[in-house]
Amino acid sequence: MSGVSEPVVNEVAEAPAEFEPEVRSLTAFERLTRSTAFWIGTALLGMVIVFGLISPDNAFVRPSNLLTIGLNAAQIMILAVGMTYLIGAGQLDLSVGSNLILCSVFSAQAVVALAGSPEQVVSGEYPNLPFAVVVAVLVALLTGGLFGLVNAILVTRLHITSFIVTLATGGIGLGIALVRTGGGNVSYIPRELQLAFGSAKLFDLVPVPLVVAGIIAGFLWAVMRLTGFGLRTVAIGSSREAAVRAGVAVDRHLVKLFVMMGLLVGIAGLLDVARFATTNVAGHQTDALAAIAAVVIGGSSLFGGVASVGGTILGTLIPVSLATGLVIMRVESFYQLIAVGIILILAVYWDQRRRSGMS
Amino acid sequence: MSGVGPTVGPGILPGAVPGASAMPDAPSASGAAIRATGIVKHFGHIQALRGVSIAVHAGEIVALVGDNGAGKSTLAKVICGSLQADDGQISFWDRPVAIQSITHAHELGLYTVYQDLAQAPDLTVAENFYLGRELYRAGALGRLGILDRRRMQGETRTALDHLGIRLKTISAPVRELSGGQRQALAVARATAWATTGLILDEPTAALGTRQTGMVYEAIEAAAGRGLAVLVISHDIPRVLGAAHRVAVMRHGLVIADLAAAETNVDEVIGLMLGSSRVPGA
Amino acid sequence: MPNSRSSVTIAAGVALLAAVAAAPTAAQSEAEPYQVAFMAGQVGIPFYTSMECGARTAATESNVDLNWQGPTDWDMSKQLPFIQAAAELQPQGWVIAPTDGTTLIPTIEEQMATGIPVVTVDAPLDEPVELQSIQSNHYAGGQAAAKAMTELTGGTGTYVVVGMTPGLPDIDARVAGFVDDMTASGATVLPVLLPGTDSTKAANLVAAAIQSSPDLTGIYVTHAAAAQGAAAAILEAGKQGQLKLVAFDADPQQIRDLKDGVYDALIAQLPYQMGYRSVKLVADVLSGAVDPATVEHDNPTDFAILNRDNADDPAYAAFLYIGDMSQCEAMAAAAGS
Asked: I need a labelling partner for A225 at 20 to 30 A (CA). Which of A195, A202, B77, C168 fits?
């Protein structure tokens, strides 16, 4: 190199003023603390500890209480895990509440129709119950899956955004359910479903619906982390164009996601019927929002491209834990709605700040 | 090209399955990897291409230059499958082809690096590199669709090293890379999967000097691997420095096709603007 | 019951009804039936099916052509279109279950001013502008629940009440009646749980209450969705039989559950009577048999406390709601009218 005092002319110079960002490998600890799921988990743990300490007799941390929280989160957990995939791919499904009602109505009607003759059913006898239940399960899955397929076709063929499509199909689905039941609920659902399934406990401890939700959530967590299917899901959400140019069959993938969501809704509908031995056509209005909130709290991005099933699972537990904690503390349950709303805003705000600080 | 099961690109990726290359056995000495003859394209009343002919040989870097509206991007889109020509002939390795789509062009071994990069910002370098042709684990796990992330990361790193692209980590999301690194990655990905040629449309338009250097190193490495490379650029000095030949377009025609060594920046610019005469006959 | 909606819709409804109210009532010839519009608060639930039975029975007896309409949700924004449509037909009398306490006051006042009788059922108006209000005294219903609970548990211990959402006067009254009486006799009542119409939410909150109070003695639920949730929570906690569950309303499903041991007592209203008496009163006013000036405003219906002992008793048959109109004949016979 020539002396420092001489001007450097006509050389392809290194430009020291230009900043090349240092991109280095992350340590395991860094990876952990970068994940939103980790922080949500910490927040949840904190909440459990605080409620545990201040609740009378430490009632909050009793295993039966914690498991009951899980049981009450099970339905939304199943919905939210499916929603994680859709949101990861840049889609939304607002029709899950209505779809759930439709699945529970059809499957309940199937049970009542097939479990015995009308006279037997009215008087509480169900001679063909096992057969009826099998059919009901198939009916629920079929209904949910078809509903999802309709959503998928409208989104991919008509190129209408999923927000609008599922808003509309939600209304239609609910209307159909109400027509089928005349506005009321399905009656004479066998209590055996509650005893054998809805309120049953594995090893006398773990509620069966929670086990079902846990298995589903665990499986879908693995699929998202480990498989090409999961990778392509977030790729589509991150940049649809990139996925198309890379040769990914985007529309076909979206169909799979919507149908999967529909199947999950069918399962949640079965859980609903099994737990309460009735349909609940006036309820489920806020299921879609609760599922989306859980996904967002859990760290997935509403814009797609970043999805955390683990975060979602934790995200579903927070509202339920909060509600339970407030009751145990003898606090008016109005506050629970306010509290969940505040948590949602805080979670998203903090997550955004964290992300912009990282890159 | 989606689906479960072990999938490995047919390209020049180190460690790729040998014999899976789409290159023909012995390209003739005069045969071009990419040859376009008499390409015509209208958009309504506008004649974008009026009978363009150009050839790019294996291992050759051809710079395609011209003023705005000369038709450079349109020609690139026709060759890469994004648009269909109204008339004219394209052949790869002297075999005529009718390119239906971008995917079809990929199958024929021609890859394009777009100005907008077409990368998924949230995915890592390795994930972007393998998107659409992911590697799966061997055996039963692979059939279940489980990715072999370790192999993908390893092969990505090897491919980047071979092309002289230095990234300290490949497991960070692509959005954290600089513009030049992302561009170089795009070139590397296209190079890895291509067996015929690469088209690059303004690859260094928004980059600084050092980053531009990185990208051109990758381009030269691609040519070094035997690919035919067509580079569209406004940076005449830089592209002239890297290319073997330069083709000048004006008003929808290639008006000059010169060896880079036999011309200079002023002459090229003059031809672009119509103020110079085409040298020779 | 839920809240009122957009003032634009309401203003339009008011204008429409006011226009209709200007039309004079026609003189009635002997043979022609009276045109009466019955605006139910919510169709498709056994409570209102029973009410329809009473209404139609009275209609047949009193030469009334009944136009029965209602939304599938207790929601004024959904009920208003039905009222507007019924107004087009220019009925001679109305029976309305107001899904909101203030929205319909102006229009009912107008109708009454032109001599068209309006009777309300099931829920109150904030101002007593109608001819008569036939509803359960919900506060008394809460008190009946307290009585039932005390009979079951002796009246001591801790209790929890499940409401719906804040601001629904009849549900709030059902809660208040229970809370006042139970606290007066020395029991502890936990803060009211408000799960809306979400069974899962109800199950969640009740389960938490069970967890938090080892000396929880009884649970009182004021509406059907919450009842299902509470029943599930009790079952899941393994406390069926130990915790006493008292619920409002006697749907066929709830009757069955009562006999199965899920509920320990049901507070049954008399929707049949609400339907019957309201239509009969309107018909009597239209025929001149009753002078409107002599009609008392409040005409509350009774409650019955149903338990496993009396659920099959024919004397109480009139209190069991029916699920569909095919059972109406039996209900009318049991009601003795």
From this structure: A202
The domain spanning residue A254 has which CATH number?
Answer: 1.10.3470
Closest chain A residue to B147 measured between Cα atoms?
A227
Q: What is the mean pLDDT of chain A?
A: 85
A62/C214 CB distance under 8 A: no
A3 touches chain B (CB under 8 A): no
Q: If pLDDT is split at 50, 70 and 90, which confidence band does C27 have?
A: very low
CA B256 to chain centre: 22
Query: Residue A12 domain-assigned?
Result: no
| Partner-chain contact C191 A276, CB within 8 Å | no
The shortest CB-CB distance from A183 to any of C43, C191, C207 is to C43
Q: How far is CA C124 from CA C26, C129, C296, in A?
A: 29, 10, 15
CA nearest A252 in B: which residue? B2
CA distance B197 to B213: 21
Q: How many domains does chain A have?
A: 1
Task: Report the pLDDT value the prediction gives residue A30, as an integer from 0 to 100.
Answer: 67
3+ Cβ–Cβ pairs closer than 8 Å linking B and C: no
3-state secondary structure of B13: coil
Chain A CB contacts of C205 below 8 Å: 323-324, 327, 333
The model's pTM: 0.79
pLDDT, tens digit (0-9, with 9 covering 90-100), for C251-266: 887 888 888 888 999 9
- Assign residue B103 the CATH number of its domain: 3.40.50.300
Q: Is residue A39 part of a domain?
A: no
Query: Within 13 Å, how many C-alpha atoms sit on residue C139's CB side?
Result: 5
* Residue B155 belongs to a domain: no
Beta pairing, strands B46-56 & B34-43: antiparallel
Q: Which of A238, A244, A359 to mutate to test the interface with B (most CBs of B within 10 A)?
A: A238
Residue ranges and CATH numbers for the domains of chain C are 7-136+271-300 (3.40.50.2300), 138-268 (3.40.50.2300)
